[in-house]
Structures are given as C-alpha cells and as structure tokens.
TrEMBL record:
Family to which this protein belongs: Belongs to the class-III pyridoxal-phosphate-dependent aminotransferase family.
Cofactor(s) for this UniProt protein: pyridoxal 5'-phosphate
SUPFAM superfamilies referenced in this protein's UniProt entry, alphabetically: PLP-dependent transferases (SSF53383)
Protein source organism: Methylobacterium trifolii
Keyword set, alphabetical order: Aminotransferase, Pyridoxal phosphate, Transferase
Molecular functions per Gene Ontology: transaminase activity
Protein name listed in UniProt: Beta-alanine--pyruvate aminotransferase
Keyword Transferase (UniProt): yes
Source species, domain of life: Bacteria
Keyword check for Chaperone: no
Length: 445
C-alpha cells in the first residue's frame, strides 16, 4: 500500500472531457483509482484492484517504484526544464546513450540513433516524417506515400490515424493524402485458439507487392505496422509474416517501421519485438514502458544509415522537427531510473519465464460461454467474445465493469478483452486474473 493519503472521489466531474471514454456513462457511475502500488490500484472506496493491463500497457515494472520517484525528484530539484533546440543538457544525451546500448535488434541492427518525443502518437508522426525526409535526402523525393495496415493503431495524430486502420478513430477526421493499407492478419476461421504465432497468413505480407503494383514503388516511402497489434484487440503476426514484409520492403526500397509503443520494453519476453521475432526494421517507435508510464515520453530509434543520410549538406538544422519536450530532463531521469529497475530485476526478459504458464491459464477459458477465440504471446492475451447482434461491444464492457467491481482491471476493445499485466506479475496472480475474469464471463454471458 502507498503511504500517500487516499483522496476521496469528491471532485465535480463536468470539466474534465475524458479521452476515449463514454463521458456521460462514466460520469453517471464513475470508477475512480486513487493510489497504486506494485500490482495493485486502490479504488476510492479502498478496494484493491489487480492491474491486468499495466495501466495502459505502460507500467511494465509495476506501480510506485521508489527509485523512479526519487530520480524524478532529484532532477526537478536540479534542472527542471531546459530546451533541446540548439541547446543541450547532459541527461538527454545520457539517456539516449543508455537506450542505444539496449536498442532493438542489438548492436548489429544499428538502430542506435534516438529521437525523443512526448508520447506514442508523437513517436509515430516523428517516424513517418523521418522516413519522408530520408527518402528525399537520398534523392527519392517522389516517395511520399505511407502504407499502414487495416486494424492498426498508431495513436491519434493526423499521421497516425491516416496509417491506422480503426474506423471509429478515422470517421470524423480527414486523413493526410497518399496513404494506403495492407490487409489485417486476423483470421479466426483458420487460427482460432492459437498460443504464440498463428500458422496461417504469412502470405498476407505480399499485399505490399499488390500496393506497389497499384501505386508504383517510386511513390512509397514507408510501411508501418505494430509487430503485435494491441489496441485493435491483440493480433499476433502469423509465422513468417514479418520476415516476408521485411523482404518486400527491401525489394522495393521502402522503409519498414515497427510501432513498438506497446511491444517495447519486455512485453513479449525480449527487450523489443524486434528481438523477439528476429526481424529488424529501419525505424522503431516507442513510448509507454520507456518511463514505466510515470512521465510522458516517447523515443524513436532510427538506423544509423537513416540518421546519417540526413546529416549531409551545408551546416544548419538537418531535420525541421521536434517538440518543446523532446528530451525533457525530468522524463529522461524517469527513463534512466526505469532502465535501472528493468536491468536489476531482469524485467525485459521476465515475460519469457511466465509466458507458458500465462498461456496455459488463459487458454483454460476456452469453452466458457461466448468465448470465440483466445490469443496469447509473451505477457499479452486477447479473449474474443461473441458480440450481441444488437449491441456490439456491450458484452465485453459488462465483463469489464464486473471485473472492476470484483477487483481486476482489464481493457476491452469492441468485444475483445485485452490483458497485459505488469511484468512483475507473480504466478499466483495469473490464477487470480483468470478466476475473476472467468467468473465475470460466466455471469455476463
Ligand atoms: C501501437 C501504438 N502506437 C501508438 C500509440 C499511441 O500512444 P500515445 O497514446 O502515447 O500517444 C499507442 C497507444 O496505445 C499504441 O498502442
């Protein structure tokens, strides 16, 4: 338990326009979290709630880590803010070097140049812009098209929603011109109830050839995918799919971007999905686990060759891009302390030890009423429920509310339940998660 005093749920609820929330429904029956420690939140009525989602896939080392809090406090007391436009401060360079040491794919991959942002959405837009600037710098200025994938989630910037593939995030907004999408890889008819990577669907990567045939390779700058799609409801890449996509990008001079905002920092049992799958992209976007969710921050890892192509020409600003908070000293302090916790406790590979027990326990939910598919990899699970014909999403929402009332936080997208607990999860807690969730599924069915 945190020693911070609990704040009662007394504030007026009108002013805060909540993100990705059914505001009116929530405010009629609010669910408030007031403290957190380790694997648990404390609700405003004092109940302990097991965190089945690491916050929003970000609190990989669990809550209330003292080392991170102390590093943040020290940094605030020494250098609270300093600009990184034409100025520097040591901790930003120190953190970038520390990240370069554990960069996706290891030293051979050369993904060791780091651009700091303030969030996952900013990391995505940054990576897309770096890709465009790179193509221009190497004399491929006609390559302005960006390829995403159906059901992809890449945050909420205009770049991110344009390459993203979730219709509700796009419907009300115009998108940037010149994008197209690969088909998604979800194939429950052939791959339902798979542990790890599904057998069928590697050939879907050939969609890139189809888009090249349609648009011309000379118009395409980059292709961005989540190695494991999270927000759309846990879609795991079929065996061979990422390898085939990498080969297609190479054939056509297209940069490959992995959006590792949720798969980065240990979620799969390796430091990054790039390491886990052994497929090396040209750019990697990260955020969330970068600072254990404590201080908002993102980072884009770029191949040295991509970076170096932009370090040519006359002296002057090479990339007209950056954020006030790129390399924020307090976020860097949080990030360095987070890496220290990951290292000391072996958290970047801990999911590999738990993955088999996790998968076995979650797949035990097969056979429960209305469960149509279960997918697991690393410390991730997706459990798909049959939708009610008249009310898609309602069944999973009711499971979510039931779980919360009984002490478990899960996340739902449509009628898919997603689980992604902190990587400090104990084996006994796997049983607790499955117990509460299974009962909730039964009750709601
Ligand atoms: C794969 C992916 N990319 C980008 C984002 C956006 O990150 P943020 O909400 O920090 O902007 C998310 C958030 O869930 C994500 O899952």
């Amino acid at each position: 338990m945190s020693d911070a005093p609990l704040r009662k749920n007394t504030p007026a609820l009108d002013a805060f326009w909540m993100p990705f929330t059914a505001n009116r429904q929530f405010k009629a029956a609010p669910r408030m979290l007031v403290a957190a420690h380790g694997m648990h939140y404390t609700a405003d009525d004092g109940r302990q709630v097991l965190d089945g989602t690491a916050g929003l896939w970000c609190v990989n080392a669990g809550h209330g880590r003292r080392g991170i809090a102390q590093a943040v406090e020290r940094q605030l007391n020494s250098l609270d803010f300093a600009p990184t436009f034409q100025m520097g401060h040591p901790i930003a360079f120190e953190f970038a070097e520390a990240l370069a040491e554990i960069a996706p794919g290891g030293p051979a991959a050369g993904l060791d140049r780091v651009f700091f942002t303030g969030s996952g959405s900013e990391s995505v837009d940054t990576a897309l812009k770096i890709a465009l600037a790179y193509q221009r710098a190497i004399g491929q200025g006609t390559r302005t098209r960006l390829i995403g994938r159906e059901r992809g989630y890449h945050g909420v910037g205009f770049g991110g929603i344009s390459v993203g593939g979730i219709v509700s995030n796009r419907r009300a907004f115009p998108q940037i011109p010149g994008t197209d999408h690969l088909r998604h890889t979800h194939d429950p008819a052939r791959n339902a109830f798979t542990k790890g990577q599904p057998e069928h669907g590697a050939d879907l990567a050939d969609d890139l050839d189809r888009l090249v045939a349609l648009h011309g390779a000379e118009t395409i700058a980059a292709c961005i995918v989540e190695p494991v799609a999270g927000s759309t409801g846990v879609l795991i890449p079929p065996k061979g799919y990422l390898e085939r996509l990498r080969a297609a990008c190479d054939r056509h001079g297209i940069l490959l971007i992995f959006d590792e905002v949720i798969s980065g920092f240990g979620r799969l049992g390796a430091p990054f999905a790039t390491d886990f799958f052994g497929v090396v992209p040209d750019l990697v976007t990260t955020a969330k686990g970068l600072t254990n969710g404590t201080i908002p921050m993102g980072a884009v890892f770029a191949k040295r060759s991509v970076h170096d192509a932009l370090m040519q020409g006359p002296d002057g600003i090479e990339l007209f891009h950056g954020y006030t908070y790129s390399g924020h000293p307090v976020a860097c302090a949080a990030g360095l302390a987070t890496l220290e916790v990951y290292r000391e406790e072996g958290l970047l590979t801990r999911a590999a030890d738990l993955a088999d027990d996790w998968a076995a326990a979650i797949h035990d939910l097969r056979g429960r009423a209305r469960v149509t598919d279960i997918r697991t990899i690393g410390l991730i699970a997706g459990i798909e429920l049959e939708s009610r014909p008249d009310a898609p999403g309602k069944r999973a929402y009711e499971v979510f509310v039931d779980c919360f009332e009984r002490g478990l936080l899960i996340r739902v997208t449509g009628d898919i339940i997603a689980l992604s607990p902190p990587l400090i999860l104990e084996r006994a807690q796997i049983g607790e998660i499955v117990g509460i969730l299974g009962d909730a599924i039964d009750r709601v069915a």
